[in-house]
From TrEMBL:
GO molecular function, one term: DNA binding
Source species taxonomy: Bacteria, Pseudomonadati, Spirochaetota, Spirochaetia, Leptospirales
Keyword Transmembrane helix in annotation: no
InterPro entries: Homeodomain-like_sf, HTH-type_Tx_Regulator, HTH_TetR, MT1864/Rv1816-like_C, Tet_transcr_reg_TetR-rel_C_sf
HTH tetR-type domain sequence ranges: 18-78
DNA-binding region per UniProt: 41-60
Coiled coil regions, renumbered to chain: none
The protein, known as: TetR/AcrR family transcriptional regulator
Organism: Leptospira noumeaensis
Keyword list, A-Z: DNA-binding, Transcription, Transcription regulation
Source taxon at top rank: Bacteria
Presence of the UniProt keyword tRNA-binding in the record: no
């Protein structure tokens, strides 16, 4: 009589202590992109990268901390993309630079719809954040794209209040277009894509050349 077949077990992958947290965030983002937020849990991302189910708790107290870390990584990536745009457009400043930032912002949201929704749902701008606050990481990261946008307008040598107002208006525009696009609520004119819509929207205030 043949012996009972042993159940195959998925081998665990050894991670250096400093490598596990970014690996967990990467796994979470992959699950989020491909399967949606409902499948995200500390257990599911541990299984995805082959570590014990308790391993993520060394870095996250629970699911909420994981979600905030994933959202923060999205803001950091968006800011990095915007900085790359700035380096490519070395002769572009002010409103025109803000326009290029806006294009990058919308493209990022459309390419990462589930991540973008999560990013927007994980910030509370009215909440007071201290140096010891568990929300500090997401708050700091969420400010980076806006600070770049603000700086673009501030470089037009206007006062801080006006630069802030213009940055808010620009952010509201790109966020509105991005959100409507990823939710399928934009019915565009024939032959026009989302970026062309954005260009048309801002053309009255930006010299498009």
């Amino acid at each position: 009589m043949a012996g009972k077949k042993q159940k195959e077990t998925k081998p665990t992958i050894p991670y250096h202590h400093g490598d596990l947290r970014p690996a967990l965030i990467t796994a979470a983002r992959s699950l989020l992109q491909n399967q949606g937020i409902d499948v995200l849990s500390l257990r599911s991302i541990a299984s995805a990268i082959g570590v014990t189910h308790m391993a993520p708790y060394a870095h996250f107290k629970g699911k909420q901390e994981l979600l905030q870390a994933v959202a923060a990584s999205g803001y950091d990536e968006l800011a990095a993309n915007m900085i790359r745009v700035q380096k490519k457009q070395t002769k572009v400043t002010g409103r025109m630079l803000a326009y290029h930032y806006g294009v990058e912002y919308i493209q990022f949201a459309i390419a990462n719809p589930n991540l973008y929704r999560l990013m927007m749902n994980q910030i509370d701008l009215e909440k007071k954040i201290s140096l010891e606050s568990p929300d500090r990481e997401i708050w700091v990261s969420s400010q980076r794209p806006f600070r770049l946008l603000y700086t673009a307008f501030a470089n037009e040598r206007v006062n801080k209040k006006l630069a802030h107002a213009r940055a808010l208006g620009a952010w509201a525009t790109v966020h509105g277009i991005a959100s409507l696009a990823i939710e399928g609520h934009l019915v565009l004119p024939e032959g026009m894509d989302v970026i062309q819509l954005f260009k048309t929207t801002v053309s009255s205030s930006v010299d498009m050349g």
